[in-house]
What we know:
The protein is α/β, with parallel strands linked by helices. It is built from 7 helices and 14 strands. It has helices at residues 55-63, 87-93, 110-122, 128-141, 159-173, 189-205, 243-252; strands spanning 3-5, 11-13, 15-26, 29-40, 44-49, 68-77, 80-81, 95-98, 105-109, 152-153, 177-181, 210-215, 228-233, 236-241. The strands form 4 sheets. The protein has a 6-stranded mixed beta sheet with strand order 8-11-12-5-13-14, sandwiched between helices. α5 (159-173) runs parallel beside α6 (189-205). The structure holds adenosine-5'-diphosphate and magnesium ion. Adenosine-5'-diphosphate is lined by residues 26-27, 29, 31, 49, 51-57.
Amino acid sequence: MILEILGEGIIKMTELLKIENLYVKIDEKEILHGLNLQINSGEVHAVMGRNGSGKSTFSNTLMGHPAYKISSGQISFDKKAINDLKPNDRAKLGLFLGFQYPLSIPGVTVANFLRQANKALKGDSVSPRDFRKLLYEKMDDLEIEHAFATRYVNDGFSGGEKKRMEILQMAMLEPRLAILDEPDSGLDIDSLKLVAESINKYKQKNPLVAILLVTHYQRILDYIKPDKVHVFIDGNIVESGGPELALELEKKGYDWLTGKEAIKA
Ligand SMILES: Nc1ncnc2c1ncn2[C@@H]1O[C@H](COP(=O)(O)OP(=O)(O)O)[C@@H](O)[C@H]1O
Ligand SMILES: [Mg+2]
């Protein structure tokens, strides 16, 4: 059971992702210094912090990027340790990472890429016609022209188009935990709204999905209401709070938190 109905329509969300005392190194340099965080199904958590504070390291580590080594600590999903799972096995459990810097894949069309990814994850046998119908529906939501289906993944896409491609992948693959690494970076205000609306739409259709939204601007949080906001400084979470924390950061910047002690539990 992932949720319990407590009567009177109150739904208690239960633990989906738990991070305990997580230390992560890259090339022998320690980047994350003992993070603790729990995300329940249905929750939206924002991770904020300056450039270089470790947000992408955190996102990539959760997905199992091989360059990031966990030196101690545990990542659990559905109460099972996933530290040793490969990215594709994490994806099968329902984790998804939308990249900060999506790569292009010349030679592979968007339609083929998504169809293969969908098959690999869900093992389903949707007919090509049904798949196309679904893909076009999701593309329409994101105002991505259907012609993009036959273009090579991210090849020659603008910054905004790449970000919308990441969200299109999310909408097609239907994860239970979507980690979105700066889905707002480099977007003009119209693209930002589209991206935010599609994330919200996905959330409305899938109320139990959890979202870890990494950003360094408050702006996207005007559209996507977080339940919790966590602030990263130098590889530590130094402050956690509600949506008001993001507004405070918008006003005061990050300086007032520099040197603050890490939250360790
Ligand atoms: N491949 C790497 N080798 C060494 N240091 C790295 C590497 N990748 C990231 N770092 C360092 O890790 C820190 C955190 O980076 P990152 O996780 O990308 O931060 P953010 O996403 O918050 O901007 C930075 O100091 C960065 O220089
Ligand atoms: Mg980053």
